[in-house]
Amino acid sequence: MDTVKQSSFNKGKKMSYYSTPKEPLMKNQVEFLEANMGENSFYKSLYDQWTKNRGLSKKQIACIVRGMTKAGLIQPIYSLKQGDNITISASMARKKAEELKLDAFFRNLEVVKVEGETAKAIQVVVKFKSDIATSCHICGRGLDCDISRATGIGPVCANKLGFVRPTLKDAPKMLEAIDNYAERVGEIGPIWLPKYSLRS
Ligand SMILES: [Zn+2]
Predict the structure, then answer these.
(1) How remote is the CA of residue 83 from the centroid of ligand 1, in Å?
(2) Separation of 161 CA from ligand 1 center, angstroms?
């Protein structure tokens, strides 16, 4: 269905082909078009353009790659993989908490699975990383005590900004509560994360 829509969409936009830069196709991409153009008018049109111009736009090539991935001919290549640790922006974490109706959405996440990716976003299943901050959110210095790790802010910065730090006695309880919360929420997703919100 998608390809039919794409094909008629492209018809009206023929002029734009001349303004977008062309890139060469790989041998297996040409073979994929040849194998499928008989039944798929969109692939046929791509093949014709390729024959004529010896190049297609990035978007067109991405369509071929998607088709090949769907057909199981190639493994999708994602910019993240299982086990990767990522940090998202504070505003995105707040937005996700709201969207998913969670009390809190951690900024530090572990990638459990990658399900999709576009130029601008990645679709992932994630887990909260409960060993939250290893460096101060404000100055970036390493944090080595439990209170600092639990709050994500070192004593110097906390003092400067007038934050009241919990006592050392409370710190283990705070970390435990954070751990418990992460465990209770478990795996989240698949969710889309815009790439602009990724900090690492
Ligand atoms: Zn600091």
Answers:
(1) 28
(2) 10
How far from chain centre, in Å, is Cα 143?
A: 27
Question: Would you state the structure tokens that stand for residue 5, as one six-digit string?
Answer: 């829509």
pLDDT for 109-168, tens place per residue? 999 999 999 889 999 999 998 666 677 766 778 888 878 877 778 888 888 878 787 787
Angle at 75 between CA 70 and CA 77, to 5 degrees: 110
Give me the pLDDT at residue 4, please. Answer: 44
Distance 146 CA to ligand 1 centre (A): 14
C-alpha 131 – ligand 1 centre gap (Å):
17
**C-alpha 23: how far from its chain's center?**
25
Structural domain boundaries in the chain: 2-70, 85-197
Burial of 77 (0-12, 13-18, 19+ CB in 10 A): exposed
* Residues near ligand 1 ion, CB 5 Å cutoff: 136, 138-139, 154, 157
pLDDT in tens, 68-100: 988 989 888 899 999 999 988 888 988 999 999
